[in-house]
Each structure stands twice: as structure tokens, then as C-alpha cells.
Amino acid sequence: MPIQSKLPEVGTTIFTVMSALANEHGAINLSQGFPDYPCDAGLLDALNRAAQAGYNQYAPMAGLPALRAAIAAKLALQHGISVDAETEITVTAGATQALFTAIATVLHAGDEAILLDPSYDSYAPSILAQGAKPVHIALSAPDFAVDWALVEAAVTPHTRLILINNPNNPSTSVFSSADLDALAAIAERHDLLVLADEVYEHLVFDGQQHHSVLAHPALRARSFATYSFGKTFHATGWKIGYCVAPAALTSEFRKIHQFLVFAVNSPAQHAIAAHLAEPAHWQGLSAFFQRKRDLLAPGLQAAGFTLLPSAGTYFQLADYSAIRDDLDDVAFARWLCIEHGVASIPVSVFYRQAPAQKLVRFCFAKQEQTLQAASERLQVLHS
Ligand code: PMP
Ligand code: GLN
What we know:
Helix content is 40%, strand content 15%. The strands form three sheets. It has a seven-stranded mixed sheet, with helices on both faces. Strands 9-10-13-12 form a four-stranded antiparallel sheet. The chain has a two-stranded parallel ribbon with strand order 1-11. α3 packs parallel to α11 and α12 packs parallel to α14. The chain is an alpha/beta fold and 383 residues long. It folds into two domains: 14-32 and 284-382, Aspartate Aminotransferase, domain 1 (Alpha-Beta Complex); 42-278, Aspartate Aminotransferase, domain 2 (3-Layer(aba) Sandwich), CATH 3.40.640. It has helices at residues 14-24, 41-52, 65-79, 94-106, 123-128, 148-153, 177-190, 217-220, 229-232, 247-260, 266-276, 285-303, 329-340, 368-378, and strands spanning 28-29, 89-92, 112-117, 133-138, 159-165, 193-197, 223-228, 241-244, 306-307, 315-319, 342-343, 345-346, 359-363. The mean pLDDT is 97. β3 (112-117), α5 and β4 (133-138) form a beta-alpha-beta unit. Bound molecules: 4'-deoxy-4'-aminopyridoxal-5'-phosphate and glutamine. 4'-deoxy-4'-aminopyridoxal-5'-phosphate is lined by residues 33, 94-96, 120, 165, 169, 197, 199, 228, 230, 236, 239, 241. GO terms for molecular function: transaminase activity. Its cofactor is pyridoxal 5'-phosphate. Keywords: Aminotransferase, Pyridoxal phosphate, Transferase. Residues 28-378 form the Aminotransferase class I/classII large domain. It comes from Uliginosibacterium sediminicola.
């Protein structure tokens, strides 16, 4: 018997589609964002030790106390803030679940949430699944700057939430402290909540700084902030992250969390708790990824791409109009993958209504030899 779809316009996520196409055609996969190098051997040992030690039953619902304490200690060191591990931190099955749970916690049917496009592909469907309405504001290349007056103009009596992603996937842009002040002013004036996806907090380049909502007192009071150990520890397959929010918000968040997943993978939480306690394991990531960014860039430029500045995340946006101006970005990404053996992600899929841009996204969280091999394959494009 057919059911009425909650997401009639949603197909399979572009990351699955492009990774499958890359595998099918033996392409170098610079599409879906994940490292192709191993994570830290110490982290793997810690996982093994935890499993061997018998931590194989349910973890506490909100997350292992030792992991929540390690997260609170990290936030204190990073931002000089005090976060209550007991009442304000929840360990989740990746940032995706944290985002979905926060959205389900806040939005009722008929509510509106403001999204800044390009926006990560899980946001709008998570809003729609609640019977709520995503209100999209399109930002354009090359700088994807936010006109906060436009954001405020999109607020209606139904608006409950503004979502931000800083640093942004896929635009790679990074908010200034003035951006956060403008956001806070709007949120306060209209009594809105904020959902800040900060999974790329440690990947900010060229000496810029990440400005977290957690370090902004007005935003801290009305935000859910989400994080992913998959990004920070090069282990996307572990699917562990966390959400930080004031106690009253966290209490409601956990009501949903407990029936969505109940608790998160126990041995991995033990392993991460030990690993996180050592700041050297999460500091220095910007330099690590900036080197990779700078390794891929010349190959893309030599192939005929015009590169946009990559300020953060582990992605590089590239304008391909000098190579195949006749193709839209979805067709170009398919062509590049099938004909030239390098997979990328078309940027228009992150928009409700994409501006006239010819952009694809390349992931540079790859070994040096992978980036070099991709560059070599692309050189034939240069005419
Ligand atoms: N938000 C953004 C912006 C992302 O790029 C990703 C993908 N890594 C996620 C959330 C999801 O993170 P996770 O894999 O921890 O669910
Ligand atoms: N966040 C990753 C990206 O942007 C993909 C994660 C996923 O495949 N769900 O490429």
C-alpha cells in the first residue's frame, strides 16, 4: 500500500550518488567529504582497548560522562567558557543526528526556519520532516556574504529558528565576529533560536579565526551548536558528534534523542574521551589541511578551473566555465567523473534556487598522492 511521502522532492543524497558514480567509473573520489588516509593509530588502539575491556553494552543516554567531561574541558580551553557536562552536552550519532534532533526539538508543524543557501543537504529535509517550512536565502559566489537585513526581512511570526553553518560547506566561507553580532541582534529582536553547525570549527585557513556561537554570550544563550568527531579525528565512519545547548534546550533535545538513538556507540566514546583529552590531537588541523588545499590548487588552476578562495572546511570550490561552459554543474560533475576520472560535487544541489554559477566542489582531505593523481588526470582539460 503506497504511503504519502513526507519528502516527495527528495531523492538520494548527492554524496551517495557521486561516490557510487566514482566507484562505478574508477574515478578518484574528491566528491563526498571523507579522508582517504588512516586515523591516528593511538585512537584505534584506544578503541580496541575499550572493546577488549568489555565496554560493549549501552552507554548512558546522554553520552559517556568521561567523554562529556573531556568535551567540557576542550571548550574551556578553546573558548574560555564554562559548559556544564551534565546538563548542556549530549553525545550524538554524528552531527547529522544532532542537527535532526535539534530541528525536531524546536520545530512544530507550520513553523519556519531560515536557511542560508548553499546549505548542507540534510537541513531542509530535516525541517520538512517536521511539517515545518525551510525559508531559503541564497548567497552568491565569490564571497557568499550574508546581507543580514535580508535575513531579518525573511523573519515572519512563524519563524522559530535560524540555521548557520560556520565554516560553511560547501561555500567554505567563514563568519566574522560582526556576522555573529548581526545574527545575535536578529535572534534577540525576534526571539529566535539558532542552530549552529560548527563541524569544521578546526579547519579555518590563512590565520583567520573561527568565531563560535558558544563564545558569543547572547548566542550561547539561544543556540544549539553541533560538532562531529568524524571531521576532527579523520574518522567519518565512526559517526559520533555532540550537541551543546543551554540546559533548558538540552533537556528537550534529550527527549527526542533518547527515542531516536537512545545512546551512542560505547567503545568509540571511550576511545574518543581519551583521545580528546590531549589538545595536540585537535589543534593544528588548520595547518594540516591548508597544506592539502595548497597542494590541490595549482593542479586545478592549470587544468583551467578558476578557484574561489577556500577560507575553511576541507573543500575547494572551482568555477569550470572556461572548461565546459555549455554544461550545468550536475552535468559537468558527471562528465568530469565519467570522462576524466575525477569525482566532484555540483554546488547547485545545495540551493533551493541556485544563482547562475558554474561551480563544483572538490574535497582535499586526501593523501598527497591522491591529490597529485587527480591533478595529473585533469591536465588534459587544459586546451
Ligand atoms: N554538517 C556539515 C556541514 C557536514 O559537512 C557534515 C558532513 N560531514 C555533517 C554536518 C555531518 O556530520 P556527521 O558525519 O558527523 O554526521
Ligand atoms: N559531509 C560530507 C560532505 O559534505 C558528506 C557526508 C555524507 O555523505 N552524508 O561531503
